[in-house]
Protein backbone atom coordinates (compact mmCIF):
# COMPACT_ATOMS: atom_id res chain seq x y z
CA UNK A 1 0.00 0.00 0.00
CA UNK A 2 1.30 3.47 -0.87
CA UNK A 3 2.12 5.40 2.32
CA UNK A 4 0.08 8.51 3.12
CA UNK A 5 2.61 11.04 4.36
CA UNK A 6 0.18 13.97 4.65
CA UNK A 7 0.05 13.58 8.43
CA UNK A 8 3.81 13.52 9.01
CA UNK A 9 5.39 15.79 6.39
CA UNK A 10 4.99 19.29 7.84
CA UNK A 11 5.96 22.70 6.46
CA UNK A 12 9.59 22.47 7.61
CA UNK A 13 10.22 18.88 8.68
CA UNK A 14 8.96 15.34 9.09
CA UNK A 15 7.27 14.52 12.38
CA UNK A 16 4.98 11.76 13.62
CA UNK A 17 4.35 8.89 16.03
CA UNK A 18 6.70 5.88 15.80
CA UNK A 19 5.88 3.17 14.71
CA UNK A 20 2.19 4.06 14.09
CA UNK A 21 2.78 6.79 11.50
CA UNK A 22 6.29 5.99 10.32
CA UNK A 23 9.10 3.53 10.99
CA UNK A 24 12.59 2.46 9.92
CA UNK A 25 11.45 1.20 6.52
CA UNK A 26 10.05 4.65 5.72
CA UNK A 27 13.16 6.30 7.19
CA UNK A 28 15.24 4.29 4.72
CA UNK A 29 13.11 5.60 1.85
CA UNK A 30 13.50 9.15 3.17
CA UNK A 31 17.27 8.65 3.10
CA UNK A 32 17.16 7.46 -0.50
CA UNK A 33 14.86 10.35 -1.51
CA UNK A 34 17.05 12.90 0.29
CA UNK A 35 20.05 11.60 -1.63
CA UNK A 36 18.15 11.82 -4.92
CA UNK A 37 16.76 15.35 -4.39
CA UNK A 38 19.98 16.89 -3.04
CA UNK A 39 22.11 15.12 -5.65
CA UNK A 40 24.86 14.95 -3.02
CA UNK A 41 27.87 12.64 -3.05
CA UNK A 42 28.05 12.79 0.75
CA UNK A 43 25.78 13.77 3.65
CA UNK A 44 25.94 14.04 7.45
CA UNK A 45 23.37 12.47 9.82
CA UNK A 46 22.81 12.91 13.57
CA UNK A 47 20.17 12.06 16.15
CA UNK A 48 18.82 12.96 19.59
CA UNK A 49 18.30 10.76 22.66
CA UNK A 50 14.83 9.40 21.84
CA UNK A 51 14.63 5.57 22.02
CA UNK A 52 13.69 5.34 18.32
CA UNK A 53 16.34 7.80 17.08
CA UNK A 54 19.41 5.55 16.58
CA UNK A 55 17.45 3.00 14.53
CA UNK A 56 15.69 5.61 12.37
CA UNK A 57 18.93 7.51 11.83
CA UNK A 58 20.82 4.39 10.76
CA UNK A 59 17.97 3.35 8.43
CA UNK A 60 18.07 6.78 6.75
CA UNK A 61 21.86 6.43 6.37
CA UNK A 62 21.40 2.98 4.78
CA UNK A 63 18.88 4.39 2.32
CA UNK A 64 21.28 7.15 1.26
CA UNK A 65 24.27 4.79 1.07
CA UNK A 66 22.31 2.42 -1.17
CA UNK A 67 22.20 5.26 -3.69
CA UNK A 68 25.98 5.67 -3.62
CA UNK A 69 26.12 8.46 -1.04
CA UNK A 70 28.88 8.47 1.59
CA UNK A 71 27.34 9.12 5.01
CA UNK A 72 29.10 10.71 7.98
CA UNK A 73 27.26 9.68 11.14
CA UNK A 74 27.86 12.06 14.06
CA UNK A 75 25.62 10.12 16.46
CA UNK A 76 24.13 11.83 19.49
CA UNK A 77 23.95 15.58 18.92
CA UNK A 78 21.84 18.69 19.32
CA UNK A 79 20.13 20.08 16.22
CA UNK A 80 22.49 23.05 16.10
CA UNK A 81 25.42 20.63 16.35
CA UNK A 82 24.08 18.95 13.19
CA UNK A 83 23.84 22.40 11.56
CA UNK A 84 27.44 23.01 12.62
CA UNK A 85 28.51 19.76 10.94
CA UNK A 86 26.55 20.64 7.79
CA UNK A 87 28.20 24.05 7.70
CA UNK A 88 31.75 23.06 8.64
CA UNK A 89 31.81 20.00 6.35
CA UNK A 90 29.71 21.74 3.66
CA UNK A 91 27.39 18.73 3.39
CA UNK A 92 23.61 18.29 3.33
CA UNK A 93 22.40 17.02 6.71
CA UNK A 94 19.57 15.21 8.47
CA UNK A 95 18.78 15.44 12.17
CA UNK A 96 16.52 12.84 13.82
CA UNK A 97 14.49 14.57 16.52
CA UNK A 98 10.94 15.59 17.39
CA UNK A 99 12.25 18.54 19.41
CA UNK A 100 9.86 19.10 22.35
CA UNK A 101 7.16 16.61 21.27
CA UNK A 102 6.33 13.67 23.59
CA UNK A 103 8.45 10.51 23.62
CA UNK A 104 6.42 8.49 21.09
CA UNK A 105 7.13 11.07 18.37
CA UNK A 106 10.17 11.38 16.16
CA UNK A 107 11.05 13.38 13.08
CA UNK A 108 13.66 14.57 10.59
CA UNK A 109 14.98 18.10 10.14
CA UNK A 110 16.82 18.27 6.83
CA UNK A 111 19.16 20.85 5.35
CA UNK A 112 21.29 21.33 2.28
CA UNK A 113 25.04 21.97 2.44
CA UNK A 114 25.93 24.92 4.65
CA UNK A 115 22.82 24.33 6.82
CA UNK A 116 20.49 25.84 4.18
CA UNK A 117 16.92 24.86 5.10
CA UNK A 118 14.85 22.18 3.37
CA UNK A 119 11.14 23.01 3.59
CA UNK A 120 8.04 22.48 1.45
CA UNK A 121 9.25 24.95 -1.19
CA UNK A 122 12.91 23.94 -1.05
CA UNK A 123 12.85 20.19 -1.59
CA UNK A 124 10.62 18.65 1.08
CA UNK A 125 7.59 18.33 -1.23
CA UNK A 126 9.74 16.50 -3.79
CA UNK A 127 11.20 14.22 -1.10
CA UNK A 128 7.67 13.37 0.09
CA UNK A 129 6.54 12.61 -3.48
CA UNK A 130 9.45 10.21 -4.03
CA UNK A 131 8.90 8.41 -0.71
CA UNK A 132 5.21 7.99 -1.50
CA UNK A 133 5.94 6.66 -4.99
CA UNK A 134 8.55 4.22 -3.64
CA UNK A 135 6.62 3.06 -0.58
CA UNK A 136 4.90 0.28 -2.51
CA UNK A 137 7.79 -1.10 -4.54
CA UNK A 138 10.89 0.24 -2.74
CA UNK A 139 13.50 2.68 -3.98
CA UNK A 140 14.95 1.71 -7.37
CA UNK A 141 18.58 0.66 -7.42
CA UNK A 142 20.59 3.48 -8.97
CA UNK A 143 24.10 3.37 -7.57
CA UNK A 144 27.09 1.86 -9.31
CA UNK A 145 28.69 1.68 -5.88
CA UNK A 146 27.48 1.37 -2.31
CA UNK A 147 28.13 4.48 -0.21
CA UNK A 148 30.17 4.25 2.99
CA UNK A 149 29.06 4.84 6.59
CA UNK A 150 31.69 6.64 8.69
CA UNK A 151 31.44 7.77 12.33
CA UNK A 152 32.80 11.17 13.32
CA UNK A 153 32.97 13.11 16.60
CA UNK A 154 31.96 16.79 16.18
CA UNK A 155 31.07 17.97 19.70
CA UNK A 156 34.55 19.32 20.49
CA UNK A 157 34.78 21.29 17.25
CA UNK A 158 31.20 22.57 17.63
CA UNK A 159 32.00 23.88 21.13
CA UNK A 160 35.23 25.50 19.94
CA UNK A 161 33.42 27.20 17.05
CA UNK A 162 30.77 28.71 19.34
CA UNK A 163 33.32 29.88 21.89
CA UNK A 164 35.30 31.51 19.11
CA UNK A 165 32.28 33.74 18.40
CA UNK A 166 31.76 35.06 21.96
CA UNK A 167 34.58 36.13 24.28
CA UNK A 168 33.85 34.91 27.80
CA UNK A 169 37.43 34.96 29.06
CA UNK A 170 37.14 38.21 31.04
CA UNK A 171 33.65 37.83 32.55
CA UNK A 172 33.11 37.80 36.30
CA UNK A 173 32.34 34.35 37.78
CA UNK A 174 28.68 33.45 37.38
CA UNK A 175 26.53 30.77 38.93
CA UNK A 176 24.18 29.34 36.31
CA UNK A 177 21.50 26.69 36.64
CA UNK A 178 20.86 24.79 33.40
CA UNK A 179 17.75 22.63 32.91
CA UNK A 180 18.39 20.31 29.97
CA UNK A 181 14.98 18.63 30.34
CA UNK A 182 16.67 15.22 29.80
CA UNK A 183 17.36 16.44 26.27
CA UNK A 184 20.47 17.12 24.23
CA UNK A 185 21.56 20.11 26.33
CA UNK A 186 22.79 17.49 28.80
CA UNK A 187 25.16 16.30 26.07
CA UNK A 188 26.40 19.67 24.75
CA UNK A 189 26.50 22.01 27.78
CA UNK A 190 29.33 20.28 29.72
CA UNK A 191 31.68 20.52 26.71
CA UNK A 192 30.69 24.06 25.69
CA UNK A 193 30.94 25.41 29.26
CA UNK A 194 34.16 23.56 30.15
CA UNK A 195 36.87 25.88 31.47
CA UNK A 196 34.65 29.00 31.55
CA UNK A 197 34.34 31.05 34.77
CA UNK A 198 30.96 29.47 35.46
CA UNK A 199 29.66 27.47 38.40
CA UNK A 200 27.29 25.10 36.63
CA UNK A 201 24.31 23.66 38.49
CA UNK A 202 22.96 20.91 36.19
CA UNK A 203 19.32 19.82 36.18
CA UNK A 204 18.02 16.77 34.30
CA UNK A 205 21.23 16.26 32.29
CA UNK A 206 20.60 12.49 31.99
CA UNK A 207 19.72 11.77 28.37
CA UNK A 208 16.25 10.22 28.49
CA UNK A 209 13.87 10.48 25.52
CA UNK A 210 10.91 9.50 27.71
CA UNK A 211 11.20 12.90 29.49
CA UNK A 212 10.62 11.63 33.04
CA UNK A 213 10.73 15.07 34.72
CA UNK A 214 8.81 17.41 32.44
CA UNK A 215 8.26 18.08 28.75
CA UNK A 216 11.35 19.56 27.10
CA UNK A 217 9.44 22.66 25.97
CA UNK A 218 10.60 25.68 28.00
CA UNK A 219 8.06 28.01 26.35
CA UNK A 220 5.32 26.34 28.42
CA UNK A 221 5.49 28.01 31.87
CA UNK A 222 4.75 24.65 33.58
CA UNK A 223 8.09 23.31 32.33
CA UNK A 224 10.31 25.99 33.88
CA UNK A 225 8.84 25.83 37.41
CA UNK A 226 11.66 23.52 38.61
CA UNK A 227 14.31 25.80 37.08
CA UNK A 228 12.82 28.91 38.66
CA UNK A 229 12.75 27.29 42.10
CA UNK A 230 16.32 26.01 41.75
CA UNK A 231 17.69 29.42 40.67
CA UNK A 232 16.18 30.99 43.79
CA UNK A 233 17.31 28.13 46.07
CA UNK A 234 20.89 28.32 44.74
CA UNK A 235 20.99 32.16 44.72
CA UNK A 236 22.18 31.74 41.14
CA UNK A 237 22.81 34.59 38.72
CA UNK A 238 20.49 33.12 36.10
CA UNK A 239 18.87 29.97 34.77
CA UNK A 240 18.85 28.57 31.24
CA UNK A 241 16.45 25.94 29.88
CA UNK A 242 16.91 24.10 26.59
CA UNK A 243 14.29 22.26 24.57
CA UNK A 244 14.62 18.59 23.64
CA UNK A 245 17.00 19.00 20.70
CA UNK A 246 18.70 22.00 22.37
CA UNK A 247 18.31 24.39 19.47
CA UNK A 248 16.20 26.80 21.57
CA UNK A 249 17.12 28.36 24.90
CA UNK A 250 14.93 30.11 27.44
CA UNK A 251 16.33 32.35 30.17
CA UNK A 252 15.19 33.20 33.71
CA UNK A 253 16.72 35.96 35.84
CA UNK A 254 18.18 35.81 39.34
CA UNK A 255 14.68 36.00 40.86
CA UNK A 256 13.43 33.15 38.69
CA UNK A 257 11.53 35.62 36.52
CA UNK A 258 11.14 34.58 32.86
CA UNK A 259 13.03 36.81 30.41
CA UNK A 260 11.05 37.31 27.22
CA UNK A 261 12.68 35.94 24.05
CA UNK A 262 12.10 39.39 22.52
CA UNK A 263 14.30 40.93 25.23
CA UNK A 264 16.98 38.30 24.51
CA UNK A 265 16.66 39.07 20.78
CA UNK A 266 17.18 42.78 21.45
CA UNK A 267 20.12 42.15 23.80
CA UNK A 268 21.91 39.81 21.37
CA UNK A 269 21.13 42.16 18.46
CA UNK A 270 22.83 45.05 20.27
CA UNK A 271 25.91 42.88 20.90
CA UNK A 272 26.10 41.57 17.33
CA UNK A 273 25.71 45.11 15.95
CA UNK A 274 28.53 46.31 18.21
CA UNK A 275 30.69 43.43 16.96
CA UNK A 276 29.98 44.49 13.37
CA UNK A 277 30.87 48.14 13.91
CA UNK A 278 27.35 49.40 14.58
CA UNK A 279 26.06 48.33 11.17
CA UNK A 280 24.00 45.44 9.89
CA UNK A 281 20.56 44.04 9.26
CA UNK A 282 18.66 42.21 12.01
CA UNK A 283 15.67 40.01 11.17
CA UNK A 284 12.74 39.71 13.58
CA UNK A 285 9.42 38.01 13.05
CA UNK A 286 6.24 40.04 13.21
CA UNK A 287 5.26 38.96 16.72
CA UNK A 288 8.45 39.95 18.48
CA UNK A 289 8.14 43.03 20.67
CA UNK A 290 8.21 46.63 19.42
CA UNK A 291 11.40 46.87 21.50
CA UNK A 292 13.36 44.73 19.00
CA UNK A 293 13.28 47.12 16.00
CA UNK A 294 13.71 50.06 18.39
CA UNK A 295 16.90 48.63 19.92
CA UNK A 296 18.23 47.64 16.49
CA UNK A 297 17.80 51.23 15.22
CA UNK A 298 19.25 52.72 18.42
CA UNK A 299 22.37 50.60 17.85
CA UNK A 300 22.81 51.65 14.22
CA UNK A 301 21.22 48.59 12.61
CA UNK A 302 18.42 48.02 10.12
CA UNK A 303 15.47 45.92 11.37
CA UNK A 304 13.62 43.72 8.85
CA UNK A 305 10.22 42.25 9.77
CA UNK A 306 9.33 38.80 8.47
CA UNK A 307 6.81 35.98 8.79
CA UNK A 308 6.98 33.44 11.63
CA UNK A 309 9.01 30.31 10.89
CA UNK A 310 12.64 29.38 10.49
CA UNK A 311 12.55 28.96 6.71
CA UNK A 312 11.33 32.56 6.27
CA UNK A 313 13.93 33.92 8.68
CA UNK A 314 16.78 31.99 7.05
CA UNK A 315 15.61 33.00 3.57
CA UNK A 316 15.49 36.68 4.58
CA UNK A 317 18.88 36.44 6.28
CA UNK A 318 20.44 35.02 3.12
CA UNK A 319 18.74 37.65 0.96
CA UNK A 320 19.70 40.65 3.11
CA UNK A 321 23.05 39.43 4.46
CA UNK A 322 21.64 39.92 7.98
CA UNK A 323 23.98 39.41 10.92
CA UNK A 324 21.33 38.08 13.34
CA UNK A 325 17.69 37.08 13.60
CA UNK A 326 15.35 36.30 16.49
CA UNK A 327 11.87 34.90 17.06
CA UNK A 328 9.36 35.07 19.92
CA UNK A 329 9.70 31.28 20.19
CA UNK A 330 13.32 31.52 21.43
CA UNK A 331 14.94 30.60 18.11
CA UNK A 332 18.05 32.72 17.44
CA UNK A 333 19.84 32.79 14.06
CA UNK A 334 23.40 33.93 13.37
CA UNK A 335 25.21 34.87 10.17
CA UNK A 336 28.37 33.39 11.72
CA UNK A 337 26.52 30.09 12.18
CA UNK A 338 25.50 29.64 8.52
CA UNK A 339 22.28 31.64 9.19
CA UNK A 340 21.09 28.68 11.27
CA UNK A 341 19.50 28.78 14.70
CA UNK A 342 21.49 27.97 17.81
CA UNK A 343 20.18 28.42 21.34
CA UNK A 344 23.66 27.70 22.72
CA UNK A 345 25.24 30.70 21.00
CA UNK A 346 22.43 32.95 22.27
CA UNK A 347 23.04 31.59 25.80
CA UNK A 348 26.75 32.42 25.53
CA UNK A 349 25.86 35.99 24.51
CA UNK A 350 23.62 36.33 27.59
CA UNK A 351 26.41 35.01 29.85
CA UNK A 352 28.93 37.40 28.26
CA UNK A 353 26.60 40.40 28.62
CA UNK A 354 25.77 39.57 32.25
CA UNK A 355 29.34 38.74 33.21
CA UNK A 356 30.70 41.86 31.53
CA UNK A 357 28.99 44.19 34.04
CA UNK A 358 28.18 44.12 37.75
CA UNK A 359 24.38 44.36 37.87
CA UNK A 360 21.85 41.52 38.04
CA UNK A 361 20.22 40.06 34.92
CA UNK A 362 16.82 41.58 35.78
CA UNK A 363 18.31 45.09 35.60
CA UNK A 364 20.29 44.28 32.44
CA UNK A 365 17.27 43.05 30.48
CA UNK A 366 14.88 45.76 31.75
CA UNK A 367 16.21 48.15 29.09
CA UNK A 368 15.19 45.63 26.40
CA UNK A 369 11.77 44.74 27.87
CA UNK A 370 9.77 47.93 27.40
CA UNK A 371 6.18 46.90 26.81
CA UNK A 372 3.37 44.73 28.20
CA UNK A 373 2.80 41.49 26.27
CA UNK A 374 0.09 38.85 26.46
CA UNK A 375 2.20 35.91 25.34
CA UNK A 376 0.63 33.53 22.81
CA UNK A 377 -3.04 32.73 23.53
CA UNK A 378 -4.56 29.80 21.62
CA UNK A 379 -8.30 29.54 20.91
CA UNK A 380 -10.04 26.54 19.35
CA UNK A 381 -12.38 27.77 16.59
CA UNK A 382 -14.75 26.09 14.12
CA UNK A 383 -13.85 28.31 11.16
CA UNK A 384 -10.45 30.03 11.20
CA UNK A 385 -11.08 32.06 8.04
CA UNK A 386 -14.47 33.36 9.26
CA UNK A 387 -13.05 34.49 12.59
CA UNK A 388 -10.13 36.27 10.88
CA UNK A 389 -12.59 37.96 8.52
CA UNK A 390 -14.69 39.10 11.49
CA UNK A 391 -11.62 40.70 13.10
CA UNK A 392 -10.73 42.42 9.83
CA UNK A 393 -14.27 43.80 9.46
CA UNK A 394 -14.25 45.09 13.04
CA UNK A 395 -11.01 47.05 12.82
CA UNK A 396 -10.90 48.02 9.14
CA UNK A 397 -11.44 51.74 8.71
CA UNK A 398 -11.03 52.59 12.40
CA UNK A 399 -9.18 55.88 12.78
CA UNK A 400 -5.49 55.48 13.62
CA UNK A 401 -5.59 51.69 13.07
CA UNK A 402 -3.65 49.89 10.33
CA UNK A 403 -3.99 46.28 9.16
CA UNK A 404 -1.52 44.04 7.37
CA UNK A 405 -1.63 40.42 6.27
CA UNK A 406 2.05 39.49 6.03
CA UNK A 407 1.31 36.51 8.30
CA UNK A 408 -2.24 36.09 9.54
CA UNK A 409 -3.67 39.50 10.44
CA UNK A 410 -1.79 42.21 12.33
CA UNK A 411 -3.80 45.13 13.71
CA UNK A 412 -1.75 48.14 14.89
CA UNK A 413 -2.76 51.30 16.77
CA UNK A 414 -0.70 54.04 18.41
CA UNK A 415 -0.54 52.32 21.82
CA UNK A 416 -1.07 48.63 21.02
CA UNK A 417 -0.90 45.93 18.35
CA UNK A 418 -2.04 42.36 18.00
CA UNK A 419 -1.49 39.52 15.55
CA UNK A 420 -3.83 36.59 14.91
CA UNK A 421 -2.51 33.58 12.97
CA UNK A 422 -4.14 30.28 12.09
CA UNK A 423 -2.35 27.09 13.11
CA UNK A 424 -1.40 24.93 10.13
CA UNK A 425 -1.97 21.69 12.02
CA UNK A 426 -4.82 22.31 14.50
CA UNK A 427 -8.18 24.19 14.48
CA UNK A 428 -6.59 27.03 16.46
CA UNK A 429 -6.12 30.76 16.18
CA UNK A 430 -3.01 32.12 17.91
CA UNK A 431 -3.25 35.62 19.39
CA UNK A 432 -0.31 37.81 20.47
CA UNK A 433 -0.95 41.27 21.92
CA UNK A 434 1.43 44.03 23.03
CA UNK A 435 0.78 47.52 24.39
CA UNK A 436 2.52 50.40 26.13
CA UNK A 437 1.08 49.33 29.52
CA UNK A 438 -0.74 46.39 31.13
CA UNK A 439 -4.19 48.06 31.19
CA UNK A 440 -4.12 48.90 27.48
CA UNK A 441 -2.82 45.41 26.66
CA UNK A 442 -5.61 43.73 28.66
CA UNK A 443 -8.28 45.85 26.92
CA UNK A 444 -6.93 45.11 23.41
CA UNK A 445 -6.52 41.42 24.29
CA UNK A 446 -10.06 41.04 25.62
CA UNK A 447 -11.60 42.85 22.63
CA UNK A 448 -9.74 40.58 20.20
CA UNK A 449 -10.59 37.41 22.14
CA UNK A 450 -14.30 38.37 22.22
CA UNK A 451 -14.30 38.35 18.40
CA UNK A 452 -12.16 35.22 18.07
CA UNK A 453 -14.26 33.23 20.51
CA UNK A 454 -17.56 34.64 19.21
From TrEMBL:
It is an enzyme of class 5 (isomerase). Its EC number is 5.4.2.8. One of its GO terms (biological process) is carbohydrate metabolic process. InterPro entries: A-D-PHexomutase_a/b/a-I, A-D-PHexomutase_a/b/a-I/II/III, A-D-PHexomutase_a/b/a-II, A-D-PHexomutase_a/b/a-III, A-D-PHexomutase_C, A-D-PHexomutase_C_sf, Alpha-D-phosphohexomutase_SF. The keyword Magnesium applies. Signal peptide: none annotated. Residues 376-448 form the Alpha-D-phosphohexomutase C-terminal domain. Residues 7-135, 157-256, 263-371 form the Alpha-D-phosphohexomutase alpha/beta/alpha domain. This is Phosphomannomutase.
